Predict the structure.
Amino acid sequence: MVNSARYAWLKEELASLDHAYYVLDNPRLPDVEYDKLYRELLSIESSHPEWVTSDSPSQRVSGQASNLFQEVKHVVPMLSLNNALEDSEAEAFDRRCRDGLEVNDVEYSVELKFDGLAISLRYERGLLVQAATRGDGYSGEDVTANIRTIRAIPLRLKGSNHPDVIEVRGEVFMSHKDFEILNQRAIKDNEKTFANPRNAAAGSLRQLDPKITAKRTLSFYSYGVGQCEPQSIIPNTHASLLDLYESWGLPVCTHRAVVKSIEGLMGFYAEIGQLRDQLPYDIDGVVYKINSRAQQEELGFVSRAPRFAIAHKFPAQEALTTVLGIDVQVGRTGAITPVARLTPVTVGGVTVTNATLHNEDEVRRKDVHIGDTVVVRRAGDVIPEIVSALREKRPENAVAFVMPTQCPVCGSHIEKPIDEAVARCSGGLFCAAQRKQALLHFAQRRAMDIEGLGDKLVDQLVDLNIVRTPADLYKLGLMALANLDRMGDKSADNLIAAIEKSKSNTLARFIFALGIRHVGESTAKDLAKYFGDIHKLMDASEEALLKVNDVGPVVAQSIIHFLNEAHNREVIEQLLAVGFTLEVEVSEINPAIQGKTFVLTGTLPTLSRDQAKAMIEKSGGKVAGSVSAKTSYVVAGEDAGSKLEKANELGVAVIDEGQMLALLNS
Ligand code: IVH
């Protein structure tokens, strides 16, 4: 029996599940269970079309003719922010605020400056009725149909006592992950890719067909208010406005705080500057807003920007430069990567002279010629890359890139399987470039951890033919080493000691160090755990390999291929012959900890951050940098700050070091 109460419950339950999934990042039900409820809702709606309301989750993509792109006048204009590019400009802003208000100290609400598009969401008595772009600030375009497809945006606000009208202002953007997915799909379908997440978000909102927008995941954060009736509903401070939005189920970024004076502003700027590269979306700065609405009104606006707020920008992550040439680099597995040599340019405070072009297809797709003016982008520790080439600036003598047919290092033939994007040098360990990379991989910290064996040294050892395989490292004598460039007796001694020390290691690290394609650290651990002995792995059949956790046919084939090479088996035997002792680590995963997320804050009484982190990870837990609804425990020490406050706000369990140790040992 279909009943309307069940229908009403389903609508509410699905909206609440969407909120948990898209806003809180904390799914309450597995996808299959969600789908069951959703199908039940659809089936009720097909027998009772008269019950369907615009806030039903089924109405996110209406498929009906819409007012897409009609002009919308903003009753309260959507203004922009003035920018502070230097610290001194932020200081001047704080001074102006204090002088203007005639006070000694001002309280600010501080938040992120999201790099997307400003949107105004109009809710009437809690129901989303219209969404508009900023346009020129006074009138924008109606994008309601497209905005409704964003599952993070509630179609109906939670709770009760909503104002007759409220325009929630905020930013629509695309996360790095969703941007990646969109571009990968575009490449597969031979369509144009987007240069950055901002363009992708803008392009998605400007789709004439909301069904296309619905296929692209967009995100939203609220940060302001437009028209509101009655006005009295707006809280006295900006921070409480954001809290009110949160209680209505609107997405509000957790990286926000209330601070005082210039020290507070600079502290937040520095904190977010550190965090920027780890955020899953782009920001281009932080925004400081005077917290008190009364003080905001007192200061008012100058031309098109408020006097009470400012955007403090981070150094740009993109810059323009020219391509001097395109070389190719040979990686450990022979992968040939085109790399653009650039006229040096400063990007985000670092001088960039090279940028990767990933592979030949990418060079074609981005249409990069030697001589072109290009946009280079640098984000965090990632290798700088070329985003796009400016066709209109291409000089007449620009030259297209031609993929060499022979390896520039060893002269071997370059092969490119039809179904792969990457071309490879077929020289294997005959190729000096591959040999060097294989040695560096073997010696790296996460593998054999041979301190002091860096690229300059490996270059010399390979070029002088002193070392051909990892096993040769263990035959190195002091004499041979001390004669190398930049190598004194002391460093040679230290290196020999580090090489000697690497002989006692774990089986997992040893397997990883071999550099088998597709065998990363985690697969190496699984293989070590399963076989427990290197010879058992060397003799394993495909069938046996497939039984190992996370090993599929591609990985299994790659292992077999590697171990079928007589040369590789010989190197392993030689390594064992120099006296390796390979220990198998017993798993210390604690089922009570596995999958749990911890955040460490403040100074713990006995453990350092790194020690606590290592202990949590060893037990199977994760350590995150910031508190969200997903956090399982906040471990608080002395002088714990905003993370502790956040935990209390979100109701996340707070424990001390002792309680953490008890939990890990439980
Ligand atoms: S407040 C009257 N807060 O930056 C002030 N804007 O240059 C209105 N933006 O068009 C804007 N993050 O697209 C504000 N936390 C934030 C923001 C933010 C990004 C964008 C927004 C606006 C532009 C202003």
Notes: The longest strand covers residues 318-330. The two ends are 49 Å apart (CA to CA). The mean pLDDT is 91. DSSP finds 25 helices and 28 strands in the chain.
